[in-house]
Known about the structure:
By secondary structure, this protein is α+β, with helices and mostly antiparallel strands. The chain has a single domain, classed as Alpha-Beta Complex (Nucleoside Triphosphate Pyrophosphohydrolase), CATH 3.90.79.10. Helix content is 18%, strand content 39%. The chain has 2 helices and 9 strands. The two termini are 14 Å apart.
Amino acid sequence: MGRPQVGVGVIFVRDGRVFLAKRQGSHGEDTWASAGGHLEAGETLEECARREANEELGVEVGGLRYLCLSNIIAYDTHYVDVEFLGDIGSQEPRLAEPEGFSVSGWFALDALPEPLFHAVWYALDSLKTGTNYYPGG
């Protein structure tokens, strides 16, 4: 499994719906996720969230709100993950890295597709409950 890595993600919610895409070609394959990836050396958490959103979904993120920190041991990996809620205004996300995702769409918060990528499950639970730390295990 190796040493834990740092993951950063950002979700987008509009009109009671969240934008999700189905992962492919990476850990958590066939789970529903949002933009996210590895924190790079010298990068702030916010810079990482914005970069990943632009690279993966072709959107420019304005404001970011911290949601949660989680310790995720799943998919034969170990991540310390930080999730944000991002403001993209009226921009429409698109699959800018088609090798990373297969399909996408906006889903009602009370009718989410399954299975959700662990980090996204935590982010959405945090949005709903205000919980900001998930110890994992």
